[in-house]
């Protein structure tokens, strides 16, 4: 997990900001799925 995202999540939990926690959680799952898709497509590349 990127450090900036980790910091923002900690701040959101500390402030009990549920809206921001949900938003950051969605961002993390989007980031993770995009990264795994790009990794799998790069590993399946055959010249």
Rough shape?
Answer: elongated
Q: What share of residues are in beta strands?
A: under 5%
Helix and strand composition category? mainly alpha
Distance between the termini: 31 Å
Helix content: over 70%
Order of helices and strands: HH
| Oligomer description | single chain
Radius of gyration: 15 Å
- Tell me about the largest β-sheet: none
Uncertain regions: pLDDT < 50 for 5+ in a row? none
**Whole-number count of domains:** 1
Tell me how many strands there are.
0
The total of helices stands at 2
The mean pLDDT is 85
Fold and architecture overview:
The protein has helices at residues 3-14, 18-43. The chain is mainly α and 47 residues long. It has one domain (3-39). α1 packs antiparallel against α2 (18-43). The model has no long low-confidence stretch (mean pLDDT 85). It comes from Paenibacillus validus.
Write the layout of secondary structure elements.
Blueprint: H1 3-14, H2 18-43
Short description:
By secondary structure, the chain is an all-alpha fold. The chain contains two helices and no strands. Helix 1 (3-14) runs antiparallel to helix 2.
Main attributes of the structure:
single chain; mainly alpha; 2 helices; 81% helix; 0% strand; elongated
């Amino acid at each position: 997990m990127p450090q900036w995202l980790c910091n923002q999540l900690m701040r959101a939990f500390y402030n009990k900001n549920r809206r921001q926690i949900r938003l950051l959680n969605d961002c993390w799952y989007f980031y993770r799925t995009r990264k795994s898709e790009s990794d799998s497509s790069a590993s399946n590349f055959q010249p």
